[in-house]
Amino acid sequence: MNGDVLSFGSAPYLCMMGLLLFGRGADFFSTWVATPNLLLEGNPLAKKLGWKLGSIANLALCFGLAFWPATALAAVTASLLVAAHNFHLAWLMRSMGEEAFCHWFQERMVESRLPLYMICLLGETGATALVGVGLLWWCPEDSKASAIGCGIVAYAFIVLFYTSLSLWRLRRKAA
Fold this sequence. Notes:
Blueprint: H1 11-34, H2 44-65, H3 69-96, H4 98-111, H5 114-138, H6 144-174
């Protein structure tokens, strides 16, 4: 974990590749369960790429990141946390259908006060980020725990960023 670059095909490289494929695969699968047509996808680039090009891009990302163990562990951590986040409401999105869920969610947003929503979003992402910051603060910089802490902080930022982006698009559309 000291910043070394792994050799392509080595046992540690293949281990990192396996972890990355599992983590990114979990993110992909959870997204497909929640929004098979990508109607509810918050990441505009992922939405634009679609499933085929997105799969290729993610495979290339896994091959590339597997060379750097700390970066790979951070990416796996963030990917698995994003998958968990997706699965949280995926059952509801799938059972209602993407369009019905989108409409239902938009109605809830219109009925809610923006400051309350933002406080809840910041509470969720801030509390999550604090766990990662704690690991970064107390663990050696070149440790696996530190890499996992980076992944947790990255996940919190991802949720905050893409949720805020979706909220901004939703409010702009409603105006």
